[in-house]
User: Fold these one by one.
Assistant:
Number 1:
Amino acid sequence: MKKLLTFAAILLISVSIASAQDSPYQKIMKKEIAKVIESDSLMQLQESANAFARISELNPKEWQPLYYGALAYTFQGLDKSLVLGKKDEAHAKAEELAKKADAIAPNNSEIVALQGFIIMAKLSADPASRGQSMSGQAMSTFGKSLAIDNKNPRALALMAQMEYGMAQFFGKGSEKACNLAKQSQAVFAGQDTETLKAAMLPTWGKNMAESMVKKCGL
């Protein structure tokens, strides 16, 4: 028992030291990332987008503030309370920020997956008129993300959603979609979330993967 308590104390001290070593940039980023991932409020999402814009201005060589700013706008554009024009405004801002992030960190699987998510969000805003033209674009973008990292759980989950929707529309089987969802869930389960958070890397999307797996009855 004494050894166990000693180990726990050492672990707690190590975590405290690691936290204390965070730069001001890392501290504010981690705070805002937590907000944007947890929020479902349009006001909070806009506040986060504004915060990431300020952080990006002070740290122009970093891609993460642009990435999370784009994510905040993408989440805004998915809000059902907004009219189509407002959704499109949010998605246009998301596209612009994601493009800037891509210029800083090209061939980044997470940024490419986000670009696919933005296309998917634009499609969902008006599926009747955009489905045919944007479905292939979204799928090819997720494919590009997976070509860079074939275990990107967000790209897998988002592609699963697209595959499932198309299967439902065309009256086809959902085996491919469900396999992708299962792959995504497995990757999420094997990740060290705290390590990803410490590096300010994306962790969102797990609920989306689990929801898809439930739809599939897996």
Number 2:
Amino acid sequence: MAGLRVKKPQPCHGPIVVKVGGSLYDLPDLRTRLQVFIRRLHAERLVLFPGGGAAANAIRETDRVHDLGEEVAHWLALRALTVNAYFLSGILPELPVGLWPNLPARTVLDPFAMFEADDKNDDHLPHCWSVTSDSLAVRAARLLGAAELVLLKSVNGGDNATWSAAAEAGIVDPHFPAALTGAPGLKVRLVNLRQELD
């Protein structure tokens, strides 16, 4: 893995990236909701991106108590996303965990190796708590050449809200609008999965 850089996306029909927010992990019927949502996408190429949830929050609290610093906490939080990737694949065994750069057509991404490689690029994301799995999913979508990113969350985004307003309201992370500027042409939509199938 040493020396491997993430290549800039080539013009192609990339996958749909679906970020599964960590706030959804306590849904007893998450498997069913995800399966139904994924079927409705009719996507030949699909990458699920894990949110941080309680695992990332535990690292945030550990950083607060022990003053680890944002650099150390950043990489620990990415390791937490690895755990969550295996959790999502565990409830969706039809979607294996994909390790960068060799991803199946339909997969749950383990983001760690991708971002370890991307860190060698000058325009990588900053290592700070204002960058959460929302911004990481934008960056992954760009690196994968995706045309669309779907954010599955527990909240509504507001039909007319800008992403800056959504960041100010805490719906997406503070860095999200800036991350989007680095992904021109990426279509992003937010879906409240708690209400989607009700």
